[in-house]
Amino acid sequence: MQRIRCFKSGWQLLKSSCEGATKLVNTSSSSTSRNYSHLPPQGPCSFGLLFDIDGVLVRGRTPIPAAKQCFRNLVDSNGKYKVPVVFVTNAGNCMRQTKAEHLSHMLEVEVSPDQVMLSHSPLRMFTQFHKMCVLVSGQGPVEEVAYNLGFENVVTIDMVREAYPVLDVVDHNRRPKDSIPPTKGLQSIDAVILFGEPIRWETNLQLIIDVLLTSGRPDNNWNSVQYPHIPVLACNMDLLWMAEAKNPRFGHGMFLVCLENLYKKVTGYELKYEALIGKPSVVTYNYAELLIRQQAERLGWATPVKRLYAIGDNPMADIYGANLYNRYLQMSHHTKAQMQAKSGGGGVDPLHVDDTPKMTSAELGGALSSYGTANDLPEGCSSILVCTGVYSRDQQELPSDPAQTVTEQRIFHGHRDFRFDPSLTQPSFVVHDVKEAVELVFKQEGCSLE
């Protein structure tokens, strides 16, 4: 069971999805696909596509050959998308506009910022933190990103270094020379936001530990008795990701492993997260589904989006997350049916029943205030694994039996606070590349790509 200490807000949906998912019965699966053939063709398209980027569309800066052709097929002669499309990536070192421009250039189709979801995008909804003084860690324009998300009082790692010159001393070349500069001081830090892996890990690890052990005042003495520490919110839990190299590279999940273990080594306590955001969290897929629904409205669809298809290359992020969200959807519809039966057919929102958190529009906040009830939720979310990134048929095999957990537990790449469940890493379908994935979806749905 997950150990995430969710804050009291609309985003308690994260806790709901993880706890409620255990109440569902797993569907049977094979090593290559689950049987979704019972879904009948729907005539007019009624589905949306969620695309991972690294390992699905690109390898580092190099486009995967099938990606351009795939997106030529997804738009009509006027450049209009045939179905709603959202790019869901755990990257977070840039602005949405920048990523949209990059994708437009690479895929040779128009990509709007509204179609791009970075790992930190759901932080727009975390309004209870927006007025706090927050320390941000990562690389790229992290300060600009934080302000764009709604945070009003932002401190960077470099600001902490400059304010307290004697804290960052691992690199002898960065230590103060001759005389020690005076301490400038900063206002007390209220929360820590981890956007992504930094460039200088030793600096960020040291200063974040300093902030946590001093309750946001790194000029004070460490005090591990003050526990729990100030809130920590982390985006992107990917242990590994795929670039141009033949083998995967360390991701932000690896940085989190270091931070968690350092904190426990020093204090004896577990590092606690106020929230974990990005794939595979259900919060991320909820937000992505909202963007899909908004696109469907802009495309003029009169009917709701009934199904989602998530295409990714990482079994532990893309596939686990899509399957976890599918469980949440099934749980929601199942609970709704049960409550309707008990109430004689009256409409009951399963997000407001006793075994799930109660959420109001005010708690959901921002764009999610119009998220709607469970009546609006899709019927399901299917996961499609491509072999052009982290996962490769040549290097690894998916376990044919989800009960084979002994070996899998030894190489569990998921985050510490996520349940180990081999069935969640089992994709609905396995295909070679993104083009084949999209063709499979349209065939499955009885829609034409022509």
Automatic annotation (TrEMBL):
Any coiled-coil regions, as ranges: none
Alphabetized Pfam families for the sequence: Hydrolase_6 (PF13344)
A GO-annotated cellular component: mitochondrion
Assigned keywords, A-Z: Signal
InterPro entries, sorted: CDP-alcohol_PTase-I (IPR050324), HAD-like_sf (IPR036412), HAD-SF_hydro_IIA (IPR006357), HAD-SF_hydro_IIA_CECR5 (IPR006353), HAD_sf (IPR023214)
Similarity comment text for this entry: Belongs to the HAD-like hydrolase superfamily.
Protein name: Haloacid dehalogenase-like hydrolase domain-containing 5
